[in-house]
Amino acid sequence: MHKAALPQQKSRIVRYSKRFRVKPGHKVKLADIDPGFHSTHEDDAAAKGEIVTNQEKLRALQYRMYAENKRSLLICLQTMDAGGKDGTIQHVMGAMNPQGCLVQAFKTPSAEEAAHDFLWRVHKAVGGKGTVTIFVRVHKLVPKEVWSRRYDHINDFEKELTDSGTHILKFFLHISKEEQLFRFKERLKDPTKQWKISESDYLEREFWDDYMKAYEDVLRECSTDTAPWFVIPSNHKWFRNLAVSQILVEHLEALKMEFPKPTVDLKRIRREYHRAEKEEHKRR
């Protein structure tokens, strides 16, 4: 007598939007967050199916946002050097149509930018309705007394954007100091990545703890209900891609975006099409 086959249980998908989200005012200790975390997936191959599915969903959702033209999405990426900003853009946001996607990196301010308030260059880089804008923040540390005065300005600025229809998602790509050193070594061996090498790469590592403290302050003070920060374990590039793509898909699906109604008489257009089709058939 054969035993009845047991029904296969579907694997439970972990909601990374909940797990990695920084609650407003919550104290963050990056040293307590494992950058090598990879949840239920053991390797790249195990996560590939979900990543591909998320990429396909992102492509369709971005197209719907572009067509709807009622709101926009602002994605902020922050990390240490070699933390995976380029890789995230390529493997996650790369699924989107470039026509409706903008990427803006913020490095050392130019003379013109430095002559204005620190948010001047940021505001003018925000994309219009229907677009997805990706901000990549690359900057040196500034004194604490400077940053501490900016938290409220940043929160007010982001609220102004959300009130005007811009949805904001901010990702801190969290890697370990050891992983960064390994990636520096890989850059040295790869001719296609050697251009990224900087004289200050190893010097900046001396200030690792200072950077972590500065990031912890930003995460605590500037993660809000409308513009949340997510700390993404990023030692495993494939898991980083999985987590970020899942959070983006979840957020965009929740918007319930719709395609706009046609602005032309479709019945008349169809009649004209069929008439033209018949005339073309006669000429053949």
Broad shape: globular
What is the rounded distance between the termini? 68 Å
| Low-confidence region ranges | 1-11
Which structural class fits the helix and strand makeup?
Answer: alpha/beta
Question: What's the short story on this structure?
Answer:
The protein is α/β, with parallel strands linked by helices and 284 residues long.
Characterise this structure.
It is a single chain. The protein has 284 residues and is an alpha/beta fold. The chain has helices spanning 16-19, 44-68, 85-91, 111-114, 120-123, 144-163, 177-189, 201-204, 208-222, 237-254, 266-283, and strands at 72-79, 101-106, 132-137, 166-174, 229-233. The protein has a five-stranded parallel beta sheet, sandwiched between helices. The N and C termini lie far apart (68 Å).
